[in-house]
Amino acid sequence: MDNTTLLIVVGVIVGLIIGFVIAKSLEKGKASKVIGNAKKEAETILKAAKVDADGIKKDKILQAKEKFIELKAEHEKVIVSRDKKMAEAEKRTRDKESQISNELSKNKKLNATLEEKKKDYDYRIDYLEKKQAEVDKLHKSQVNQLEVISSLSAEEAKEQLIEAVKAEAKSDAMAFIQERMEEAKLTAQQEAKKVIINSIQRIGTEEAIENCVSVFNLESDDVKGRIIGREGRNIRAIESATGVEIIVDDTPEAIILSCFDSVRREIARLSLHKLVTDGRIHPARIEEVVRKTKKQIEEEIIEVGKRTVIDLGIHGLHPELIKAVGRMKYRSSYGQNLLQHSREVAKLSGVMAAELGLNPKLAKRAGLLHDIGKVPETETELPHAILGMQWAEKHGEKPDVCNAIGAHHDEIEMTNLISPIVQVCDAISGARPGARRQVLDSYIQRLKDLEDVAFGFTGVKKAYAIQAGRELRVIVESEKVNDDQASELSFNISQKIQTDMTYPGQVKVTVIRETRAVNIAK
């Protein structure tokens, strides 16, 4: 049993060994076959890769050749262009050299000519110097002979001759100047009078004088109590809302509205009219009516400004300036309504500018805006002319218009012909009889100041301000002031008045000098 098992085991082991050997043999044969196939495929792949590599190589070589040919062509073009430029530069250089050679040859010829002329001039100068020496010697000899004959030296004779010529020339010059001045004055006065008269004849305005007090008429005195209200609350509400003082006195069927600002007075008057007509008078209603009236007045101011500029033919005015023109209706200057005054000055300026051949539209514009500085209610120390000029500059007005506004009271220097026209027309408008109202004390003081200015000069004996301050007559002492000094004194007094005083229109200064010889026969 044991032997049988052993044989089986041995047989199995031998079988396994034989099977293993057979399996190894088979595996080795299969592996040899696979390796052979792999070698064949590798050779096939290598052959294909070699063929592809040869194709790629040929393509790359071909591309490299084409690129080389292209770069070579471009290089040849650059070389050709550079050669062309060099050839052109060489040609220009040759032309410049040729031109320089020509210039050098010309310069050589000119130098030779100049040398010849210089020699000629030197010869002439020497000749002239010799002649001059001979002339000087001869002149000296003649002067010596004249001095012996006249018993005067040359310097003395020269001084006498100069003095005689100066005296004669001065006399002739003074006579000529006097004649021309008289002729110019006569012509200028005639032309100026003609222009001014023509301008004034074309203008007709109403003479309106505004006061600081307005009278509001009532249907009956019963309304006064309703306006005052219980314990005066209504009248206090009106005064608070409008800024106007309301005076209720014994005047029958009337109350007085007092305020320096005519716009406030007009608002108060219209508000009272609405309240009295409506019948409902109490603080709440008063505030509502005053507010609506203020808005109405503002609209009316703008409308008045627009209508004014349209009437005068002025275009392109800034809205703020139009509003300021409308507010002129409620302003006054020395009792003269500012809007009427400005319209009058604008028309006068336009007519005068047209007469003188200037731009009438520009003159009208400057005339209308010349007193625009009186409209603002803000407190300022600037003169109204300067303030108006700043306003006009701020709102884009032309320099000529701004200068006319600022210079119409000589606050700044005039730089164009429109400025004196506006100044003269402003004086014409303000100087009309009844146009303005002045306080008696200030009027008398102005006349006294005029006379004091004259007494400040040497030789003045008497001075009289006449024709309402339009003329100053000065009587001088004939022993201290001659005729020539009298003319100079008149000019100096007029300049002093113009510099130191403020006055409407113009002041004529007349200096009177006379010599009296008095004897008594006994």
Written overview of the protein:
This protein is mainly alpha-helical. It has 14 helices and eight strands. The protein has helices at residues 2-150, 154-202, 222-228, 233-242, 262-278, 283-311, 319-327, 338-355, 360-369, 384-394, 399-407, 418-431, 440-455, 483-500, and strands at 213-217, 245-247, 254-258, 332-333, 336-337, 460-466, 471-476, 508-512. The chain has a three-stranded antiparallel β-sheet, with helices on one face. It has a three-stranded mixed β-sheet with strand order 6-7-8, covered by helices on one side. α10 runs antiparallel to α11. The longest helix has 149 residues, at 2-150. The relative contact order is 0.04. Mean pLDDT is 80; it is low at 204-210.
Element layout with pairings:
Elements (H helix, E strand, L loop, with lengths): L1 H149 L3 H49 L10 E5 L4 H7 L4 H10 L2 E3 L6 E5 L3 H17 L4 H29 L7 H9 L4 E2 L2 E2 H18 L4 H10 L14 H11 L4 H9 L10 H14 L8 H16 L4 E7 L4 E6 L6 H18 L7 E5 L10
Parallel strand pairs: 7-8
Antiparallel strand pairs: 1-3, 2-3, 4-5, 6-7
Q: Determine the number of helices (DSSP H or I, runs of at least 4 residues).
A: 14
Gap from first CA to last CA: 220 Å
The gross shape turns out to be flat
Beta content comes to: 5-15%
Poorly predicted parts:
204-210
